[in-house]
Amino acid sequence: MVDAPAGFQVIPLTLEEYRKQTEKGNLPALEAKKGVVVRDAEKIFE
To answer: What residues contact residue 32 under an 8 Å CB cut-off, 6+ apart?
Structure first.
């Protein structure tokens, strides 16, 4: 279990799932390379 601050949701991925998402150009997966992960539930980046 990951202890995240209120308002944050942790979504763990396997390495294979992560690679597939980066190949698709998934913004949160690409941002994870920088150490910043943003879940775009509001579709701001589309």
So the answer is: 18
Summarised one tens digit per residue, pLDDT across range 3-46 is 777 777 777 788 888 889 889 998 888 887 777 666 666 665 56
Sequence length of the chain is 46
Measuring CA to CA, how many Å separate 18 from each of 5, 6, 7, 38, 46? 23, 24, 23, 14, 20
Give the C-alpha distances (Å, rounded to integers) separating 44 from 1, 13, 19, 23, 40. 28, 22, 23, 20, 6
Place of tokens 């763990």: 12
Domain ranges of the chain: 11-40
